[in-house]
C-alpha cells in the first residue's frame, strides 16, 4: 500500500459520524458572511445595508488574482456590514443578512437545462432564487472550453474545501511555463474525527469524478488519481464502481483510485504527491512546480455543481462531532450560519464539553465564541469533553529526536522551536522553517509536551515580518 | 636555590621575548583609526542597545564621524547630555532633542478588562496575538506577557500584578525597543514634560469598548469639548496634543466618563 515515510498514527475517532448520511441543515434566520474566507486578498462588498439579496447572489468580489468571490447563502435583507469575529480569531468585514422572502429578482429562465435530475442541493423553496450567475447556456462536458471552466470556478467562489481555502480558480490557472500532467483528488481525510469527505465520497461519487474531469480539462492534465486512505473501504469501492460506470463522454484512461495507508498527515498535499507518484515538491515550492494540482473531493463536487447548475459555493459539508456533542452529525450547512446554530441542530453540547475547535484536533483552530460563522474552510466543528486534555505543562527538550523521526517534511522541529524561542529567526529561515506544514505531528509525539508548532508558527510570522 | 633561580630566569626570559614580539607587532601591524571615532565613542553611553539603528555604539560612532553632523542620527539613551558632548567634539551646533519616555497606553487591568478565552500556549505576547488575537477580549489592550519587558535593555518595564506592562520612568531612556516589540503597538514615546495621557488604544466603537473594558476610551468627545485643541478624537479614540501642555489638559481628567484620561 502506498504512503509517505514518517508521520504518526493518532486515534482516528471517526466511528461516531462515518455511517451518518449528510443531512441538510435548516436554513438559519440570520447569516454573517465574512468577506475574507480564503487565502489571498479580501473581497470588497458589492451590496449596501438595506439591499435585498437572493440566495446565491454575488455580494463580495475582488480584482486581485488570488481571491475568491463571496455569495449570499440565504435570501433576505442586508442589515449590517461591519467587522465581526471570524473563526480564525480576527475580526473580518462581514455582511449580515436577515432571512425574508425576496421577490425573484432574476428569472429562472437563466438556468440551463440540466442533464441530471435535481440534486439534493436544489431542493425547492418556492420563492427563492437558486442560481447566482445564471449560466445562460450550460454546455456539456465535451463542449466546454478550459477558460470557461476557470471562469465558472472563479465566479462560483470555489476555494479548496479541505481546510486551507486556497482559491481553486488560481490553482486551475497555472503559469504558462508549468505543464500540469496530473490532477490528484484528495480523499484521504487524515484528520481525526472528520468524516465530511468520507460521506461526500459515498454520496456524491459522480460529482467528484465530473469535477475532477473538469479540473483536468481546465489545466490540460491527462491523468487523474483519487487517493483514499484504507480506513474508508466503502468509499473506495463506491468510487471504483463510479469509474467503471462513468459515461463514455469525456472518458479518461488515466482515472484511477489508489488506496493509501491510513496515516497522518497523508492528506497534506506534499505527502500525497510523494505517496501517489513519488515526486517531491521542492522547498518553498508548490505542487504545480512538479506538474500537479491537488484538489479535495469536496472541491470537486463544488466544481461539478457550479458547472451543472451554476450553484455558487454557499454551502459546505461540516462534520459536527466530538465527545462534547450530543448527536454527532454530518451536516450540509450554509456559509454564514453561526456555530451555535449548527451545534443546536446536533442536540447541543453536553455538560462536559470543554473546548470548541473549527477543523480537526491536529490542525484546527480553537474558538472562544460561539457566534462565529461557518466559513468555506470549516470542515468540522469539534467539541471536546473534559477527558481530552489538549494543553499540558511543557518541560525542557530531552533531545530524544522523536519529532525529527516523525516530521513528514524532514525538518528538525526541536531545533526550529529552540531557534524560535531564542529569537534566531534568520537561522530558522536558513534551516527551511518556512517549509513546515504545521501538521502538528511533532508536538503530538513530544514527550516533553513542547508546543513546537506554535513556536514554529511564531518564527514563520517573524521571518515574514523581517522580510 | 639553583632551581628557583633557573625558573625565574627562564620565565622572565620568555616573558621578555614575547613582550618584545608584542611590542614590534603593535608598531608594525597597527590599524590606523580615526581618533575622532574614539573620542565620539567615549562620549556615547556605551550601552550597545541598538536604539540608534546601528550595531552597537562603535558602529554609530563611525557613522557620526563619517557624516560629520547629527542630522537624522539619534542616541535615545544618551539624551541631551550626549548631544551636547558630541556637538562639542564635532564642533557643530545641534538642537537639543526633546527628552522622551515610553508609556503603555492601556488601563485594562485583569479586574477591569474582560478575557474572552483561556490561553495556555507560549507565554509571549506575539505568540498569543497569533492565536486568534490573544485571550483578552479587547483586541487593542495590553496582553501582559511582557514582550516589552524582555526587549528592554534597561529593565525599565515590568508586568505588574494587574497584568499590565508598567514603565519605570527613571530608568527609561526612550530607546524605542519596546515600541517595536509590542505586537499591539500600544507603547508610545511621549515628552517627559507631559504627565497626562489617554490611557487607551482602542479604536473600536463605543458599544464594543464598553462590552470588553471598563476604562476604555469610547470616543464620546467630552474631553475635546472640555479642552478644545488639547484633545483630538480620531477613530473613536482620544489623543492628547502634547505641545499644549499639562495645565490645559488637566480639566478633562474629571470629566472623562470612563476615567481613561490619567495623570502618570
Q: What features would you describe in this structure?
A:
The complex is a heterodimer of chains A (467) and B (264). With 467 residues, chain A is an alpha/beta fold. Chain A has a domain at 402-466. Chain A contains 14 helices and 17 strands. Chain A has a six-stranded mixed beta sheet. In chain A, strands 2-8-7-4 form a four-stranded antiparallel beta sheet, with no helix packed on it. A four-stranded parallel beta sheet of chain A has the order 11-10-9-12, with helices on both faces. In chain A, strand 10, helix 6 (233-244) and strand 11 form a beta-alpha-beta unit. In chain A, helix 2 (146-155) crosses helix 5 (205-219), helix 4 (196-203) packs parallel to helix 6 and helix 11 crosses helix 14 (452-466). Chain B has helices spanning 2-28, 35-43, 56-67, 79-90, 125-130, 147-151, 177-181, 206-212, 222-226, 246-249, 252-255, and strands at 100-104, 157-159, 165-167, 187-191, 196-198, 231-234, 237-240, 261-263. In chain B, strands 1-4 form a two-stranded antiparallel sheet. In chain B, a hairpin with a 2-residue loop joins strand 6 (231-234) and strand 7. Chain B is elongated and about 90 Å long. Chain B starts with a helix and ends with a strand. Chain A binds chain B through residues 88-91, 365-369, 391, 451, 454-455, 457-458, 461-462, and chain B through 116-117, 120-122, 124, 126-127, 130-133, 135, 139.
Structure, briefly:
The complex is a heterodimer of chains A (467) and B (264). Chain A is an alpha/beta fold and 467 residues long.
What is the secondary structure topology, with strand pairs?
The complex is a heterodimer of chains A (467) and B (264).
Chain A lengths: L14 H4 L3 E3 L5 E5 L9 E2 L6 E2 L4 E4 L8 E2 L4 E10 L5 E9 L46 H10 L12 H4 L10 E6 L8 H8 L1 H15 L3 E7 L3 H12 L9 E7 L8 H9 L14 E5 H13 L5 E7 L7 E6 L4 H6 L10 E4 L6 E2 L13 E5 L17 H5 L6 H9 L3 H6 L10 H5 L6 H15 L1
Parallel strand pairs in A: 1-14, 9-10, 9-12, 10-11, 13-17
Antiparallel strand pairs in A: 2-8, 3-5, 4-7, 5-6, 7-8, 13-14, 15-16, 15-17
Helix pairs in contact in A: 2-5, 4-6, 5-8, 11-14
Chain B lengths: L1 H27 L6 H9 L12 H12 L11 H12 L9 E5 L20 H6 L16 H5 L5 E3 L5 E3 L9 H5 L5 E5 L4 E3 L7 H7 L9 H5 L4 E4 L2 E4 L5 H4 L2 H4 L5 E3 L1
Antiparallel strand pairs in B: 1-4, 2-3, 5-8, 6-7
